User: Fold these one by one.
Assistant:
Number 1:
Amino acid sequence: MLRLVVQSLLRRRWQSLATILGVALGAALLMAVFLLYRGFDQGLERGRQRLGADLLVVPSNATVDPDRALFAGSPLSVYMDKKFADLARKVPGVRRVEAQFFTQSLHLECCSIGIETRLIGIEDQVTRRLAGMSPDGRERLEKDEVIVGSELLSGIGRPGALIELLGEIFKLAYRLEATGTSLDYSILMPMASARDLAASSEALKPVWQESGDPHGLISALLIEVEDVGRIKEVGRALEDLGSLKVIRAADTFQRLKRLMGAFVLVLAGAGVLTALGGIAYLFGHFSSVAWDRKGEWALFRALGATRPRMVQLVVGESTLLALGGALVGLPAGYGLYRLAFVRLTAQNAFPFVAPGGVLLTGATLGALVLYALIGFLSAAGPALRVAQLEPALTMAQGDID
Amino acid sequence: MSVQFESVREGDTVLEARGVSRKYGSETILSDVSLRVRAGEVTTIVGPSGSGKTTLLALLALLLEPSSGEIWIGGRNATGLSDSARSRLRNTFFGFIFQSAQLVGSLSVLDNVLLPAILAGKPREKSGAARELLDRLGLGPRATYLPHQLSLGQKRRVAIARALLLGPSVILADEPTNDLDARRASQVADFLLALPSEGYALVLVTHDRALAERAGNRWEIQEGRLTPPEHVPASSLAHFGNRALRTNINGAT
């Protein structure tokens, strides 16, 4: 039976090819949109988990893009007195305060990836929180140890490897899982080490002349509140500490999600419309085929094909065409997604985590099942009409070759 | 080669029409037709255009349902059988040779011969038989050809091979020598008329005078009424043509 289906498709090879390409277009768009959406969704979620904070506090003179600061993990080259960390801990409603210290951007000649590499000083409690993202659950960093973003120094990926930073030697503690943010291109180290390194750097001296001794500075505070319902109140109290700017994570999170949602909606709408167009095209194709090839179908009926077998034949052709289209379109969709992924991560405009193998496999299998279903449904009506063809038709017709 | 029902012996009735009528709307095409087809014999049906020959063949072959009367196959009433049962009988009990070869253009000669087996879901086990038939009909070297690469006579022989593939009890041939030159027509006739000696029942609808005379056992159909051989005058082969019948079949569908 498969032989009949395949031979029939091969005989009408240009028509089959056009149908396959039409279906492939929809499949490519659906796959690309799905992967982008999942990548963004995962990135946003991981960014939120990584942040573990409801509020981000920075100096009031900082020019901050909340999206980039909170979810793209973009470090800020701004500084404030470290006393604000202690003051913030005393504000009613504050449960947890984490201070971070960012140095100026650095450039690693050996491992340049085309964008700047940053050093971030973190407190011990941050190290403990990141333990979930380390291979062996490490909760503590030695003074000379660093955590490296997933996209950096791929050539020396083993823990214990030596890394030279601004003339000092550090050891690789572990590599972070991909976050889809600029953290993937950052190096984290104990707060004290980051300050020492920054203070000893000749290149950074002008910064400290302006901002003061780095040992007394921090760049940002990540704050978790006790009651999210009182977040505005806590935010106002923090701003009252003086010269501070407070960014609410929830607002930014929701706004980003809405923004990306609209973006995905447009793309998904286009994908769904293309898929529906594919169904309509296949339906039209097989409706017309049911008429054009009635001589052939009637012959099959006369030679003993049962009605279910006729349905199998027509639906088989349609399903094969749809699957063929999906098999062409899915890799193309993956390519399209990779293209967008490279662009997005280069810009660090959105938090983005590349979907893993399991998701990719699942998406591919799901799409194949979906397209098999589309093929089946689009030809079901014409197939039923073909099955009703009167076999006696064959007595009245001329040659069908 | 021939695969017959175990209970069927030469001379047994394998196919029978009992008082069969067929109407298209208010027009009666066949009226109260009765006919017995026996294993190992030829049954020839002749008649002028529009007399009901092809309609009768379609009824005997379970391609059409009679308006009244019954079709019996192998001693069983086949009237009112389900579509699946009728399809299976068409597949295994009958071998069809249509007016035109009706080969499928996208399939090779071998696959065209295998078509009934493919539709029955058993092409592999019949592959050897299909090649044997092609050899027997002188088409072995053309097994991989496509139909458009064959002459009319070769196409007709492919159609004969297809009809014989599953070893049917009854071969139904509708104008099998139509459009063939005298030499090719004679070759086809030789082959077909040898089939009853192998146990096949052959139902031949023709307006080929030479073929009808050679075949014998000639039933004549006139205005939808069938006359048995013993009442058919020798001068009955004067009317040919069947275009009007095509119109009737089309009207029914």
Note: Chain B touches chain A through 45 residues (CB under 8 Å).
Number 2:
Amino acid sequence: MVELSVLQQRFGTELVESTFRDNRRIDVPAAKLFDLLSCLKSDHGFNTLIDMTAVDYLEYEGATDRFGVVYMLLDVFGGERVIVRTAVNLPDPKLPSVYSLWRGADWMEREVFDMFGIVFDGHPDLRRILMPEEFAAFPLRKDYPLKGRGERHNFPVITRAGS
Amino acid sequence: MAVGLPENVFMTKLDAAASWARSNSLWPMPFATACCGIELMATAASRHDLARFGAEVMRFSPRQCDLLIVAGRVVMKMLPVLQRIWLQMPEPKWCISMGACACSGGVFDTYAVVQGVDRFIPVDMYVPGCPPRPEQLLAAVIDMQAKVRRTGTVMGKEFLARDTPMGPEPFESEERYRIQDANLVQLGGFSAAMTSAGMKRGAGNHG
């Protein structure tokens, strides 16, 4: 099991550890995210990125940052899991891409970009993955209306005579 | 029968003969995107047996079909595909909108789900239900046959008269207000398109 003190020695005391229902979580500032993740991969055996996602904390009680980005790591051989969380804020939500560490991050980062508008520096192909290319908003942000902003009707109408 | 026709010979109009033939050999194009698609499969399977109505030939090429069955919700990304399939089908052609989602969006009133396919393609028959039972779809096919017999002409002239999309207005008022509030400048030409009657987008924007 990777000790927090070992990581703190290398990355400073900003690293905070917490536990929720057996999930071990490490909070890290965005500036040190990439170094921490690559250290976890190369020195501590976390060879799989199980999932990554983001959370919009707008109007969330006690939240100080707008977005949280969450990386779930697994050491396949040791069976150890750890969740790494970081925070980004408007107007320029930007994080380094971890595509170079885990190829599986490719589509996950595209999805987070598509839904939240968080940009991943160094991603080879950061396009929308779920929404159409011409979609102009980031629909999972909390300030985006549930029913959209009329994008659903932005199509030509085909009539009987016209087909 | 003053003319003295021999036995087994009937007099009819060419239109009626064509409609009779078409109505009894509807070839469906299954556009099954959700749970309605499962009911559509059940309708075609042995218990409900769509073959009794001559409509069992599900073709997965729109070029060979004349009845589009939209079964399930259609999202923004899928709508251009649906429209393309409709345009690829040869005349004469008809469309059944199957289930609450295809007819009205159903419970999925979200940013991505189209609120009724009839806003963007012509629809001849609506099947309510979530999902509809196979009997309901069979009833729709039977009604469809009656409609084909009633309205058909050899050259399909009846379609030319219908130049407006059938179904509800393209916008609900609430959605109109949302667009005005958002004042989306990113979607180039969108506000201009909103005011025009046809709600048509510039040809260049749409692939």
Note: Helices of chain A lie at 4-11, 33-44, 105-116.
